[in-house]
UniProtKB/TrEMBL annotation:
Pathway: Lipid metabolism. This is Palmitoyl-monogalactosyldiacylglycerol delta-7 desaturase, chloroplastic-like. Residues 35-128 form the Fatty acid desaturase domain. It is a multi-pass membrane protein. The gene is LOC103329455. InterPro entries: Acyl-CoA_DS (IPR015876), FA_desaturase_dom (IPR005804). Belongs to the fatty acid desaturase type 1 family. Its main location: membrane. It is found in: Membrane. The chain crosses the membrane at residues 30-52. Keywords: Fatty acid biosynthesis, Fatty acid metabolism, Iron, Lipid biosynthesis, Lipid metabolism, Membrane, Oxidoreductase, Transmembrane, Transmembrane helix. The keyword Transmembrane helix applies. It comes from the Eukaryota. It comes from Prunus mume.
Length: 177
């Protein structure tokens, strides 16, 4: 019972989802979905399908997911001023279905899309867009251009350098006299 109380406490930021019948259904039936997938995989391809489709897939995703917070705070690029060490890592962007665009995630944690540039592959976003087309995903949140401009690390660096007198009027660095 204590587990259930703790679990319900973690759902305090999804009040809108807790009211939708589809998500209520998923919340209470998700263990059956995993069992059904396991049975289906076994029926279609026997033990190899079951092992690859359940065990190996889960081990892979757990390792990649847990690696995000260590690797994407060490290696990669920062394009947003987030006040932390989060970085975008293209390799983990691919391996983790878009979650490797970690600096994007820290800058816009409410955004459904983590790969904000056209070249940042984000398969989770593609799935959300598909669900949106089916009407299963609504009120999908994305950052506006104004929000992106406010968070841009480049703008912060230029503004700081202008205050120090190290940026000329054409935006290029120049020596301080």
């Amino acid at each position: 019972m204590l587990f259930l109380l703790h679990y319900e406490g973690r759902l305090n930021n999804v009040g809108d989802l807790k009211k939708k019948p589809y998500y209520i259904f998923l919340h209470y039936t998700y263990p059956f979905h995993s069992v059904a997938l396991g049975v289906l995989l076994y029926v279609v391809g026997g033990l190899p399908f079951l092992v690859w489709g359940m065990a190996i897939r889960m081990v892979y995703m757990v390792h990649v997911t847990f690696s995000i917070n260590s690797i994407c705070h060490t290696w990669g690029t920062q394009v947003w001023d987030t006040g932390d060490s989060s970085r975008n890592n293209w390799l983990f962007g691919l391996l983790a279905h878009g979650e490797g665009w970690h600096n994007n995630h820290h800058a816009f944690d409410y955004s459904a899309r983590q790969g904000l540039e056209w070249w940042q592959i984000d398969t989770t976003w593609y799935l959300i867009r598909f669900l949106q087309a089916l009407g299963l995903a609504t009120e999908v949140k994305l950052p506006t251009e104004a929000q992106k401009k406010r968070k841009a690390l480049y703008n912060k660096v230029i503004n700081k350098k202008e205050k120090l007198g190290t940026v000329g009027n054409n935006g290029k660095l120049q020596a301080v006299k």
